[in-house]
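Form P-L/3: holo structure prediction, ligand iron/sulfur cluster.
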Amino acid sequence: MKKQGHSFYSGSDIEIIAKLIALGDDFVDGIEKMAQKVRGAYALIILSRGKIYAARDKHAFRPIIIGQKEGSLIVTSESCSFINLGCTIVRDLKPGEIIEIEGDKFETKKIIPSPFVQYCSFEWVYTANVASTIDGLPVDIARRNLGAALARRYPVNVDVVGAVPNSGIGHAIGYAQESKISFDAVFIKYDYASRSYTQPTQAERDREAKIKLIPVPAKIAGRSVVICDDSIVRGTQMKNDLVVKLRKNGVKQIHARVACPPLKAPCMYGVATRSKKELAAHGKTVEQLKEYMGLDGLAFNTLDDLSAALGKPLCDLCTSCWTDQYKV
Ligand code: SF4
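OUTPUT (holo model):
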């Protein structure tokens, strides 16, 4: 595109997408032409004069959903934003669908065909808001299913089930319900901490990770715990922070249960995971990972259990960050 005279200013991929769409005869034609050129994931909402266009990539990696309220239509990436607005869900955009919204009506203008879909399974595991529903499956239910699957496959005799808050809470509740071991808030999250793994520099990630978890001493001393988490990315938070804080507070044993398989490869579809060599599980067995992080026990959900918990066949799910195989 640069050879054709285009200039780029932002460093963001959306600028490339916008310029490709602008090459079309109209928005729908532009989105279709853009979709022929780009490989991967997108979910677009385009505000134009008097109309809104929304488009989901043909593999449906990312969620995008239509809602309504008193004759108004709303389109957003996550349905949690409907709740306080008093909107109800109309439906998710279909894979490859382009819609045009005008006033209180929407119309499907095009469906870009694809022989297969690849829903990002990490949305349900971690990325999405727990109050959202994606493609008919509430995120909260998905997380409880994942926790319950861990309890069935990897039971452990402990006094309490805890979570890495907040995204591990749903998994931990599922584990607790299935195992009949009570859930307790072993850690609470410092309200002003942001997601440590999305921070751009190592120093910022370390700072966020350190302040994020506040242990509750009365719930830890003299007890054995199983801690549920959504995923292990670099493993530094569990190793240098969570385990250290639990041991300092007199924990008897620490077991960890992780809602997805070990992360082994980066995401090529827009989620800010780390490069292979930064991922804790890269090149390590589960046993080595357990020793590295100073845990007494460690287990991860299998791909089959993940697929069952999400109620979707494995072939319809993107699992590239666990398999290191990319279908798109
Ligand atoms: S690689 Fe992982 S995070 Fe990226 S789209 Fe696939 S499942 Fe989601």
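COMMENT: The chain has two domains: 13-117, 137-313.
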